[in-house]
Amino acid sequence: MLLSGFARVDALRKIMTDSRQTAHAQDIFSASPGSEVTVHGWVVRKNSVGGIVFVVIRDGSGYVQVSAKNSIADEDAMKAIKAVSRESLVTVHGTVRDDGRAPGGREISTKSFKVLSKAETWPITKTASKSASFLYNIRHLSIRSRKVVATMKIRAEVIGAAFDFFRSRGFTLISAPSFVQAAVEGGSTLFSVDYFGKSVNLSQSAQFYEEAALPALEKVWIFQPAFRAERSRTAKHLTEFWMIEAEQAFADQTENMRLQEELLSFITNRVLGDRQTELKILGRTLREFQLPLPRITYDEVLRASSKEGVPFRWGEDIPTEAERVISMKHDTPFFITDYPLSARSFYHQTYEGRPDVTKSADLIAPEGFGELATGGQRIAEHEALLDRIKGQDLPSESFGWYLELRKYGMPVHSGFGIGVERTTRWLGGLKHIRAASLFPRTLSRVSP
Ligand code: 4AD
Ligand code: MG
Q: Which CATH number among 3.40.50.1980, 1.10.10.60, 1.20.1070.10, 3.30.930.10 corresponds to the domain 139-436?
């Protein structure tokens, strides 16, 4: 009988649930020896030793070894397991047994073995896997690796920790549009798209929308994609990434930095507490750090990096190489504060009597990883912001509603944005930021 629509889906689901009586690969290690289990999984490798076939299978929980020999497995099972190809989806039914030679000291002794979906020849051979660009070309398949799985678990922990952190601090999670008009972080990295015959931009940052939400909600945060037309090929730039941003009314830059370091500490401790296995898979030694984090000024960085032979001019943004050199000198994250206005976006509040220096900071990861977050105090007064926009020859009409906010009771406020993939890259000790994204978007990559 042919079932259609929902009836068919329900029937399929029932078959799946019935047959998963239901162990995951990792459950084997807490089951009692002798108990019978059924596991669905994907074949990772296979070999035979003296008439016994060993197969390692993977599911969402991890890896388990399966063994099969004639005296225990039925005839069909032996036939199926001998012929099974890598990455085929299989169902194994058997008995849990201790075996010192199996990874983790446990295995499933097969009684029955069925191939649910046979895989073609797996393209990721040992030689092929040495080419990073090949692996990213077939990322839809290569994401099944241990390292990618470990990285995605750490990334999910970063995001989950942020949800818990902001909820416990009374911040409201908001959302903002991705189709926007204004350039929050300057025109040079804007993506424009056709919007019914009109050109609009993809959002670089939700900051302006967060600011607009302050008189309604006071403390907000947001978690959504940001788009940057980055033309540089670096280990820390994606063209699409996820950003965690927060904005607080009645908070100055001192308070803003405190919030950032507490968030980073909360995230780091969560990963240290719950993701040791994944850190080990990535070969990463990550250490806890004490608060407050060190704070050094832009001027101090300028002097220190000149001494290290990486000079730059006051007023420029800190060049990547100088940032790397300073970052190498630290073994905990730290802040670089007091950036020149010329190196910052127009909306930054400056110090009284120091109109060239902003109340802003970057949060920098140690060991050469570099910038994780940027934050600052915003101009809250209408006249001051209008003067700034005019002073920088920016089109004030593009910032109409952002300016108007300042006419209707805008409090002192500050905020920041921290990149999810940058943070994951640092926590996991990853060479390149693209490894922190399941399907990275870079200058040269929009597929898969
Ligand atoms: O430093 P950025 O440009 O600051 C802002 O967008 C502010 N408006 C945020 C705010 O105050 N609400 O971006 C913030 C963070 C960076 O520190 C970095 O972690 C990440 O976003 N980021 C990128 N990550 C990956 N690829 C890129 N091209 C990135 N550009 C920024
Ligand atoms: Mg920045």
A: 3.30.930.10
Q: How many CB atoms sit inside 10 A of residue 412's CB?
A: 16
Residue of 174, 318, 374, 424 best suited for mutating to test ligand 1, as the one with most atoms within 8 Å of CB: 374
Q: Which ligand is nearest to the CA of 370?
A: 1
Give 22-67 pLDDT, tens digit per residue.
Answer: 789 999 999 999 999 999 999 999 999 999 999 999 999 999 999 9
The 8-class DSSP code of residue 427 comes to: H
User: Sign of the CA dihedral 228, 260, 292, 255?
Assistant: positive
The span from the CA of 214 to the CA of 406, in Å, is 12
Q: Is 240 exposed, middle or buried (0-12, 13-18, 19+ CB in 10 A)?
A: middle
Domain covering 5-117, topology = OB fold (Dihydrolipoamide Acetyltransferase, E2P) (2.40.50)
In angstroms, rounded to a whole number, what is the distance separating the alpha carbons of residues 239 and 230? 6
CA of 375 to the centre of ligand 2 (A): 8
380 alpha carbon – ligand 2 mean position (Å): 21
With a threshold of 0.85, does the pTM exceed it? yes
Is the beta carbon of 184 within 6 A of some atom in ligand 1? yes
